[in-house]
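We store sequence, tokenised fold; for instance:
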Amino acid sequence: MPRVGRPKTDTEPVTLRLPRQMIETLDDLRRQEKDIPSRPEMIRRILVSHLKIDDEG
């Protein structure tokens, strides 16, 4: 179950607009995951993988 409550204090929100095709591709990737993450979580996972960092930054 996802964590709820206050976000970590060392984070900042990022808002962006994506083309519909990119969102559809993102949703396709999400469906391939066992837990079907939210869009923001999937973007985090992609960034962690691409930037080769751990989940904690």
Summary: The mean pLDDT is 89. The two ends are 22 Å apart (CA to CA). Residues 41 and 55 are 11 Å apart (CA to CA). The longest helix spans residues 39-51.
